[in-house]
TrEMBL record:
EC nos: 2.7.7.101
Family: Belongs to the DnaG primase family.
InterPro entries in the cross-refs: DNA_primase_core_N_sf (IPR037068), DNA_primase_DnaG (IPR006295), DNA_primase_Znf_CHC2 (IPR036977), DnaG_bac (IPR030846), DNAG_N (IPR013264), DnaG_primase (IPR050219), TOPRIM_DnaG_bac (IPR034151), TOPRIM_dom (IPR006171)
The protein's name in its UniProt record: DNA primase
The organism of origin for this protein: Deinococcus oregonensis
Length: 596
């Protein structure tokens, strides 16, 4: 039997780590690369090939060849030793305490053979009716647990497998009163569940009829941890590890075993499924270690599907991966869509969808009214968990803050101040919301414009009716004034429309502010009126130019954000639009200066 040192002596640490990290020379006996344990843009991870150790100057992770495999593969020391021993061609002895999991893998393999033996019959017909080929059925090792209480128990006894080991593997259940054990899985199609290393850790079983529960999984055991497993990851792993690809492929996360199998059969080999749970932080840690970069969540379009999608997004996934959410256009789940021949619909869904940030925002906007203060408050509170991470490496959080500011009309600095406050959940009052508004300046200009139009309603002719008013009261008054026509509108007629309404007090205030004659005599009143009307006309022009510049600046900001997210081919066109808008802004400024 070989030892740990025998394994170490036969392997080159740089070659082993090089299977996970792209390494380049960094001096005599040193290699460097991007750290696999944290996100970074400049390499701070180094490997000392002479000493046989690695160290990251960023996150401080370090160790030898065994600890590296432990961390990247999420393995125990014993399993990492066995994995490397197999690579080195060395046979090692299992230490005390490491045999339990190996026994569970072995008894699961025995059970799999039993289930596959009983597949021919109704279960096989069911799988074929679901569109699965015999090659796919064999590749996913599908089987059937026959009816009866102790078929597996009896077979195990004939092979010398103890009742205790069957219980530890979750293959049987014990009657607490009689102590008798019986088969857990009965009358079910059996889906073997392997971990990302391909080890057989448990099973999922589905009934052939409508009886409940529809699905039954192995309970948590020493080998089976439901919240850490993704069905199909052992097969999809090659897509993200670089085996046969460039690595970093996109995983498709779906809801069920049949969805995964059907997608793989049709060439979508990145499909995986959680085992009846939302995606967890443990899932995220595992996928990050394996090198996953992109995830697409493809769940049903119903409320349960939406809830499952948001539950997945509620974890740390958004901070670690580029995540998109989508669903099949037909409204079916992927397996049913493929059975109906809608492979094109699956491809359409995978090309479309929303990224994690926009999906969250859209879900919040569909629930609350963005036109009200209460709605804006609710949207902010719903988005807060995802946008409160101020880590500069979390691009999703920064993007969500940008979208929230643009959509809700909030000043970025005010949003950051609120997010950073310890009492943020208690201080989001109406006053606080008003103070966060980014549109105070624009709304002040709108009020100034309305004030000048009340002085001289004939200036309505300068408006084309397309201005997107931010102030709701101004919008209502402008629509009413334009509805009366340039010739028919005057301050009194406009005021009469809003008699007894909240806008009445605003109009009265603006009328007083616009015409303060003070102690002007009758002789000079006509001259005063001429000056007031002349000033009003100039002010309308100036205010409209300011509002136009504000609108173009906002469009420039939006295009700049789109450039950062666009493909290289699209960036040139967006940059041209930005250039045109900036030239238009400068032209507006020059025109205003020349008439001043």
């Amino acid at each position: 039997m070989g030892t740990k040192e025998d394994v170490r002596s036969r392997l080159n640490i740089a070659e082993v780590i090089g299977e996970y990290v792209s390494l380049t020379p960094a001096g005599k006996g040193r290699m460097k690369g991007l750290c696999p344990f944290h996100k970074e843009k400049s390499p701070s991870f180094q490997v000392d090939t002479e000493q046989g150790y690695y160290y990251c100057f960023g996150c401080k992770a370090g160790g030898d060849i065994f600890s590296f495999v432990q961390q990247t593969e999420n393995l125990s020391f014993g399993d990492s030793l066995r994995k490397l021993a197999e690579k080195a061609g060395v046979q090692v002895e299992a230490k005390y305490g490491e045999k339990s999991s190996r026994d569970l893998y072995d008894v699961n393999a025995f059970a799999l053979s039993y289930f596959q033996e009983h597949l021919p019959g109704p279960a096989l017909e069911y799988l074929r009716a679901r569109g699965l080929t015999d090659a796919t059925i064999a590749a996913f090792e599908l089987g059937y647990a026959p009816e009866g209480w102790d078929g597996l128990v009896k077979r195990a006894k004939s092979r010398g497998i103890t009742d205790r080991l069957l219980l530890e593997a979750g293959l049987t259940t014990e009657n607490p009163e009689s102590g008798r054990i019986y088969d857990r899985f009965r009358g079910r199609v059996m889906f073997p569940i392997r971990d990302h290393l391909g080890r057989l850790v448990g099973f999922g079983g589905r009934v052939l009829d409508d009886s409940k529960p529809k699905y039954l999984n192995t309970p948590d055991t020493e080998a089976f941890k439901k919240g850490e497993l993704l069905y199909g990851l052992d097969k999809a792993r090659s897509l993200i590890s670089g085996a046969g690809t460039a690595g970093g492929g996109e995983l498709i996360v779906v809801e069920g075993y049949m969805d995964v199998i059907s997608l793989h059969q049709h060439g979508f080999t990145g499909a995986v499924a959680s085992l009846g749970t939302a995606l967890t932080a443990e899932h995220a840690m595992l996928l990050e270690r394996l090198g996953a970069q992109k995830l697409t969540l493809m769940f049903d379009q119903d409320q349960a599907g939406l809830k499952a999608t948001l539950s997945g997004l509620d974890q740390v996934l958004g901070a670690k991966f580029r995540v998109r959410a989508t669903s099949v256009p037909s409204g079916k789940d992927p397996a049913d869509a493929l059975l109906a021949g809608d492979e094109a619909g699956i491809r359409e869904a995978l090309l479309g969808g929303l990224d994690e940030v926009h999906y969250r925002v859209q879900a919040a906007l569909e629930k609350y009214d963005v036109g009200t203060t209460a709605g804006k408050r609710s949207i902010l509170m719903e988005l807060l968990p995802r946008m409160q991470n101020l880590d500069p490496l979390d691009e999703g959080a920064e993007q969500m803050r940008t979208i929230a500011c643009h959509t809700l009309g909030i000043k970025p600095e005010a949003l950051l101040e609120w997010i950073g406050s310890k009492a943020k959940r208690r201080t989001l009052t109406d006053t606080h919301m008003a103070g966060m508004s980014a549109h105070r300046g624009e709304e002040d200009r709108e009020l100034s414009l309305l004030r000048q139009l009340l002085v001289d309603p004939s200036l309505l002719a300068k408006l084309d009716g397309s201005t997107p008013w931010r102030n709701e009261s101004v919008r209502k008054v402008m629509l009413a004034a334009l509805g009366q026509g340039v010739g028919g509108a005057n301050a009194d007629s406009i005021l009469e429309i809003f008699r007894g309404q909240p806008e009445e007090q605003l109009l009265i205030r603006l009328m007083f502010e616009g015409r303060d004659t003070g102690a002007i005599s009758r002789d000079t009143n006509q001259m005063y009126e001429q000056k007031v009307h002349g000033y009003a006309a100039a002010a309308v022009d100036d205010i409209q130019v300011s509002m136009s510049i504000d609108s173009m600046r906002a469009e420039v900001d939006l295009l700049k954000r789109q450039v950062a997210e666009a493909e290289a081919a699209e960036q040139l066109a967006l940059l041209r639009q930005i250039g045109e808008l900036q030239r238009a802004i400068e032209a507006e400024k020059r025109a205003r200066r020349s008439t001043a």
